[in-house]
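Hey,

The postdoc asked me to send both predictions to you directly instead of through the lab channel. I've kept everything plain text so nothing gets mangled by the mail client. Protein one:
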Amino acid sequence: MSVQTPSSPASNAGQPLAFVSAQALRERMHEAVNDTHLRQSFRGAMDFLMAKRAVQFPDPEELDSLRVLSEHIRQYSLSKLPDLLEQLETSLVRNGVQVHWAETPDEANAIMLEIARRHAAKLIVKGKSMVSEEIEFNHAMEAAGIGALESDMGEYIVQLAGEKPSHIIMPAIHQTKQQIAKLFAEHIPGVEYTDNVDALIQIGRRVLREKFEEADIGLSGVNFAVAETGTLCLVENEGNGRMCTTVPKVHIAITGIEKVVEKLEHVAPLFSILTRSATGQAVSTYFNMITGPRRSTDQDGPEEVHLVLLDNGRSQAYADEQLRKTLQCIRCGACMNHCPVYTRIGGHAYGTTYPGPIGKIISPHMMGLEQTHLLPTASSLCGACGEVCPVKIPIPELLIRLRGEAQSAPRADPAMVGQGAAYDPKISLLWKMWAGLYSRPSTYRAFSWLATRFRALTPARQRGWTAARTPLKPAPRRLRDMLKDRT
């Protein structure tokens, strides 16, 4: 594994939305906050998900013990990651799975494009996969003249709308039934407008059912990859993942290198806490365990199975003991559901594949701090994300660390690409002066005395502080002086 420089993202209208500029990020956040309907929709949805999660964990002690166990499993797996990846490859090859390694999104897309061309594929039908979103798989295939169709209902909706998922578990949570009805009427031939939810679901299912039969290749993500047995585990609710991995003749799975665990017994606790944290379900509708292509005794299944293991900045996080904790994530989305910032602005305002708290700490590794240094600052540091994380990722601590990496002076041996991207010598000098004033009692007393006497000179505009707050102004009298008067 090695560290690589992220490729340049596209952000023009109609193009893959990999990231938006810093200024556009601010603009999107303002637009989202001023969108009353969006705020109400997200507030209601997040409250609903938080309530469902709470019902699944009535016993605080059981929740805490399961979180501790899950954290230990993920940390244990990461501590042995290079060895487990080699063991996983050996086990998969023994099972008849072809394993591919990709350092960058371009490499991953090239690998899968080569497989598609070898099979003269015209249509690829996809189960839910955030990693495929991460590498802009759909756009890469379409550019090569190969169709890529989302079969998860939420992903299918945002694909029709030309959007990115706004939530990693519920991609179309920002869409109303009226908006979805309009999309279906405009994009699906022979479909008339209806905002009946059951009818919309049946329309989507009918279209997708036909595509499963036509598809040459099925693509899926991976929730857990078991090194000991060479098993690919896939968690889902709609059955589209099972269809994608069994109906087409070729199945391609793609996952980040961090998803590996050592033993099958390690999956059970993670699966239990994943479903309850994500959607408030005791268990998901489907749990798929894939061990290889169709055997002579099997009734169905693909003739060929491939696994693409993607790095894309994960090795950079892995190299640092503190930042490595980012890779513990099991993609449940609980941090988003409880985040006051995400609840108010939604997923699209972030402009990255992974929104919310997890996106703020993982996107800088995938894209570099030059483009993402504002993401860690879009947080109140209330700590809710860390409190609900099922694998106990210390997200607030990592946000502070990333802020420091972005603001500190550039170093010759940076811990991550783009370190020092937000460094400003003037700001650095001001903080050094502040530290000098507040670290010595004599200078602090002198400064506070002067500040109260000359408080009328306090500037009305104080850079970013007064963008959303009233100006800071010294009090007419120091606390020290008032206490003296009382004694």
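Protein two:
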Amino acid sequence: MTRVLEIVDRRLGDRCCDPTARPSRSHAEAEAAAIDFDQLAHPVRLQLLDVLARNEGRVCVCDLEAAVPVKQPTVSHHLRLLREAGLVESEKVGQWVYYRIRRDAARALRDRVQQVLRAFA
């Protein structure tokens, strides 16, 4: 919905600002949304989530490393961020670490992001 602002002759001391030009979200709500977007704001994290979402069960960390165009320390960094965000979980079996997506957390993140984006459309 587009608003047309009407230009009116104002007297000295009158406010020129539209008092309704305020955010619909509080600062805390905007910070929470920014954290959600930040979790997705890197191409490697998006690729890792894509691999995990398409492969049910668990994926070995060596397969995740082979799937993205960065070195092992960078993959580990992004996997750590995804674990801290609660989007993936890991399980160590012997010397290997297997990852799986937490679909409930991914759905909740999707719903929160969609809600924010709907307000902009």
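Summary for protein two, as requested: The first strand starts at residue 59 and ends at 60.

Thanks,
C.
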